[in-house]
Amino acid sequence: MKSKATAETPATKALASAGVTFGSHFYEYQEHGGTRVSSEALGVPEHSVIKTLVMEDENANPLIVLMHGDCQVSTKALARQSARKRIETCKPEVAQRHSGYLVGGTSPFGTRKRMPVFMEATILDLPEIYINGGRRGYLVSIAPSEIVRLLSPTLVNAALAD
Q1: If 140 and its partner were Cys, which of 36, 106, 115, 133 is the partner (CB 3.0–4.6 Å)?
Q2: How confident is the model at residue 2 (pLDDT cuts 50, 70, 90)?
Q3: Burial group, residue 150, by CB count within 10 angstroms (0-12, 13-18, 19+)
Q4: The pLDDT of residue 70
């Protein structure tokens, strides 16, 4: 059995194969703890912890939204900026089917299905971000520019203060 220190996930394989240098950060996962738990455990601002949300449009087409941990997504603003009629969060089992990851361990890297990615534009203002590494209780730290390089996200302004 692999130790946590050498955890390999589809996300870390995708990052490594793309030549991304990343840090590995483990914490004690808490059901429904969200980014508050991981930011406190790692001693980093919750604003720097990026959530990966699997959502779907009015035709049930999946998409990924990357948002600051201390913010909510305005689905109305996101729908407007993505030229969709409606966007809503997927049910956990649907999100898992699209991404290949358990909810709470969803990474935008190495997903089962290729999905369009929408990223809150202000994430690029941060020098380093912490984003899920493909399993519960595991974040990777990377430069936000790597998300742009690897995923070509559409930048949006859809953050609502939590």
Answers
A1: 133
A2: very low
A3: middle
A4: 97
3 state SS of 14: helix
Whether the model pTM is above 0.90: yes
| Count of the separate structural domains present in the chain | 1
Residue 125 has which token pair?
A: 């203002």
Per the CB < 8 A criterion, the answer to whether 118 and 63 are in contact is yes
- Predicted local distance difference test score (pLDDT) of residue 162: 72
Q: Is 9 helix (H, G, I), strand (E, B) or coil?
A: coil
Residue 85 domain flag: yes
Establish if 75 belongs to a structural domain. yes
| C-alpha 136 chain-centroid distance | 12
Q: For residues 141 and 23, what is the distance between their CA atoms, to the nearest angstrom?
A: 5
- C-beta separation of 18 from 29 below 8 A: no
Asked whether the predicted pLDDT for residue 160 surpasses 90, the reply is yes
Domain range for residue 99?
35-161
| 27 belongs to a structural domain | no
Distance CA 66, CA 77 (A): 14
- The pLDDT score that the predictor gives to residue 1 is 33
